[in-house]
Amino acid sequence: MSLPKDFLWGGATAANQYEGGWNIGRRGKSSDDVITNGTHTEPRCITFVNKSGERVKAPMFVGADYEDVDHFECFDDCLYPNHEATDFYHHYKEDIALMAEMGFKCFRLSIAWSRIFANGGMEGEQPLEEGLKFYDDVFDECLKYGIEPLVTLSHYETPLALTEAWNSWADRRTIDCYVRYCEVVFNRYKNKVKYWLTFNEINCIEMSPWMEGGVLTKDKQTMINMAHYQFVASAKAVKLGHQINPDFKIGCMLAYTLTYPMTCNPKDTLAAWKNTHNNIFYTDVQCRGYYPSYRLKEFEREGITLPIEDGDLEIIKEGTVDFLSFSYYISQVAAYNPEDYEGAGGGNLSLGLKNPYLSASDWGWQIDSTGLRNALNRLYDRYQMPLFVVENGLGAFDKIEEDGSIHDTYRINYLRDHIKAMDAAVNEDGVDLMGYTMWGCVDLVSASTGETAKRYGFVHVDKYDDGTGDLSRRRKDSFYWYKKVIESHGNDLD
């Protein structure tokens, strides 16, 4: 068996982790520009000066109180790896040529919002022609090789000016700014881009509101306000996009973590079910067009009030997405009494109990290719709409041999098993799957730790965690393997 001939094989990146050029073309600062590097054990931090004039480094996943901030600042003694990242800005022709050599049918990338509107699209602000022209050139380069761009409109970076003005997505005014931005890029690229995603991993709002939308808070009510405003903004973008070009396909994007019960104890099964609902609440709203009762009951118990205004629910109902895309890296385990078991494993912004039946990556992410087949079936059964795996891959330490080669058989083995799982879901289970864009097809900066040592790509970039490196590109063994996979439509996996 093989995957369909129109299957969108490719790779995925994000501007904030890959593009660089942070201060070129009048681009405004983004929320990501004030995030330091980190390590396995040291967290990435948001840097600012507080009202007392003190320099503060607030852990990204912990956050801080917005009221404490005087201004955001990049400190001279800190490293901000995404300022240059792996410099797609100056290497886009070379990188897209490498993707074409592999046979890519699709390239997932994101637009840096602050490259289009330095201040986020506040009332009366004009878009930046330099930024618009850059993406024109990128999309033209893709289309020259027959590669379809899949564009994420907001991927872990938000114009910092919106945070400075009103704490970004904690305020309803950001909806209008986002829609202005969408209107500009939809119109500009309506004949170059067909596939769009409104927000990257939108369900990570409650894990890191700063990363998801430039919001500083530790308060759940603020996070839920933020989620509601992004739901409304996404729905408005879908409606607007379809008006501008009815052929647009506009999807949502979920960080999907499959959850198993630790045992067949009914209480463990219930714990796993609750974890699953917390994960898919966001797609329930974006795909079905309404708030699910299980989450409304939770809000009621916790005293959380949705900031709904007249017309919001109608907009959400009318602006459901055309397809559901998701990242899949890991599965996790839940138990009614988690303290009875071994501690949590690592993962893509997710924590769960360790699964004794699975091995793990260098970063502690448990590897579960069968879980991808399970995930595809669960999501397709729930929503009955096309699915797209837009992130999947293995972050690992790569070694350059004396002859310059990189023998990343561990990455090939990982990807082979996950592609087999997709094949089974499509050909044995009947799942409607649009495509697969492997994460970090060219090495980039890790979102969670800020490391470049955590490498995902088919293409190695000479860039290191201390900021050194000449940014030269080098093909890994997996580069040639993936080329063969695409040529055979996923049939030749040897």
Give short descriptive properties of this protein.
TIM Barrel; 15% strand; eight-stranded parallel barrel; 494 residues; hydrolase; 36% helix; three-stranded antiparallel beta sheet; 14 helices; alpha/beta; GH_1_N_CS; single chain
What does the model show?
The protein is α/β, with parallel strands linked by helices and 494 residues long. It has a single domain, classed as Alpha-Beta Barrel (TIM Barrel). It contains 14 helices and 17 strands. The protein has helices at residues 15-18, 88-102, 113-116, 129-144, 160-166, 173-188, 209-213, 220-244, 266-288, 293-302, 312-318, 369-383, 409-427, 477-487; strands spanning 8-12, 45-50, 55-59, 69-72, 106-110, 148-152, 195-197, 249-255, 258-261, 323-327, 331-334, 344-345, 352-353, 387-391, 433-439, 459-461, 473-475. The strands form five sheets. An eight-stranded parallel barrel has the order 1-5-6-7-8-10-14-15, surrounded by four helices. A three-stranded antiparallel beta sheet has the order 3-2-4, with no helix packed on it. Strand 14 (387-391), helix 13 (409-427) and strand 15 (433-439) form a beta-alpha-beta unit. Helix 2 (88-102) runs parallel beside helix 4 and helix 12 (369-383) runs parallel beside helix 13 (409-427). The model has no long low-confidence stretch (mean pLDDT 96). Belongs to the glycosyl hydrolase 1 family. It holds the Pfam family Glyco_hydro_1. It comes from Faecalibacillus faecis. One of its GO terms (molecular function) is beta-glucosidase activity. Keywords: Glycosidase, Hydrolase.
